[in-house]
């Protein structure tokens, strides 16, 4: 089973790119973040015509929003609200075989990494705390996949400069610590770093501000695919060839600043 996560930064604006990606990469499941539209405005027809008629959408006008589209039936669709903000930042659905997919869009956190001075950063830390509390309840046999734009680059080589970004939101020690607590709470496996050494640079996001993003390569790994312990063997069986950051998509015309990230599980 191949699953892809992609912060699309407006699905209606980039629906042609999504359809193109689906035609060339053909994942079984595509999880989108920042769809930036209500359910009624989600381009479900175009996605169904592309072969993804099974859809779960949690939409919000102009902001946030997440969706799961699939070649296979989706059941037990769940939308969880975090931090009592009313934001649409999570959706979950079950696939045949009992696999549960959680799709997240964690708050970016603003510019100032101080929860006292910056309400957005405080919200981000609270959101990660709620994730920790929730997933600590999952049993050891749960077959779960967690994907999404988690807006934290946890390791030294998940950013272009560890030293320069230690005080920049997305790579600060407190964010890394909080994300680590989420991982520990359910024994989540960060698949990318399970199969690719932490000494190797790995990015999924490049700022729009860069004149030539590929030449400067000042990226961050903000987009994640994790699996529960019960799926670890299936996730790492294919080795690094089973995991791909589609950075070529970042070079398409009017792209999202995030590249899609895919994992093929040997189920």
How would you sum up the major sheet? 6 strands, mixed
Q: Which CATH architecture? A: 4-Layer Sandwich
β-strand percent reads: 15-25%
Q: Regions with pLDDT < 50 over 5+ consecutive residues? A: none
CATH fold-level label: Deoxyribonuclease I, Chain A
* Fraction in helix: 10-25%
Shape: globular
Question: What does the radius of gyration come to?
Answer: 17 Å
Strand order of the largest sheet: 3-4-2-1-14-13
The CATH fourth-level homologous superfamily: Endonuclease/exonuclease/phosphatase
Number of helices: 8
Enzyme class: hydrolase
InterPro entries: AP_endonuc_1, AP_endonuclease_F1_BS, Endo/exonu/phosph_ase_sf, Endo/exonuclease/phosphatase, ExoIII-like
GO molecular function, one term: double-stranded DNA 3'-5' DNA exonuclease activity
Family: Belongs to the DNA repair enzymes AP/ExoA family.
Present the secondary structure layout.
Blueprint: E1 2-7, H1 15-25, E2 29-33, H2 44-49, E3 54-58, E4 66-70, E5 75-78, E6 90-95, E7 99-105, H3 119-135, E8 144-149, H4 162-165, H5 173-186, E9 189-190, H6 191-195, E10 205-206, H7 213-216, E11 219-220, E12 223-227, H8 232-236, E13 243-245, E14 261-264
Parallel strand pairs: 1-2, 7-8
Antiparallel strand pairs: 1-14, 2-4, 3-4, 5-6, 6-7, 8-12, 9-12, 10-11, 13-14
Keywords: Hydrolase, Magnesium, Metal-binding
Enzyme class: hydrolase
Family: Belongs to the DNA repair enzymes AP/ExoA family.
């Amino acid at each position: 089973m191949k699953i892809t996560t992609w912060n699309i930064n407006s699905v209606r604006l980039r629906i042609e790119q999504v359809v193109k990606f689906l035609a060339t990469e053909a994942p079984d499941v595509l999880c989108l973040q920042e769809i930036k539209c209500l359910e009624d405005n989600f381009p479900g027809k175009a996605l169904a015509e592309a072969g993804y008629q099974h859809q779960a959408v949690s939409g919000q006008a102009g902001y946030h929003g997440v969706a799961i589209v699939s070649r296979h039936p989706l059941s037990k669709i769940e939308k969880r609200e975090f931090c009592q903000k009313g934001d649409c930042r999570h959706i979950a659905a079950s696939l045949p075989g009992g696999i549960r997919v959680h799709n997240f869009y964690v708050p970016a956190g603003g510019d100032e990494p101080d929860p006292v001075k910056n309400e957005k950063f405080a919200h981000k830390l609270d959101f990660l705390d709620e994730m920790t509390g929730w997933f600590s309840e999952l049993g050891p046999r749960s077959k779960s996949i967690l994907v999404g734009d988690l807006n934290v680059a946890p390791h030294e080589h998940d950013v272009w400069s560890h030293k320069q970004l230690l005080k920049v939101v997305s790579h600060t020690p407190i964010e890394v610590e909080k994300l680590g607590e989420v991982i520990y709470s359910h024994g989540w496996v960060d698949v990318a770093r399970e199969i690719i050494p932490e000494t190797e640079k790995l990015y999924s996001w490049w700022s729009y501000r860069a004149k030539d993003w590929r030449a400067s390569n000042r990226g961050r790994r903000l987009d994640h695919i994790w699996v529960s312990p019960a799926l670890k063997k299936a996730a790492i069986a294919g080795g690094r060839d089973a995991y791909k950051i589609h950075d070529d998509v970042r070079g398409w015309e009017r792209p999202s600043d995030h590249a899609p990230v895919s994992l093929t599980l040997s189920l």
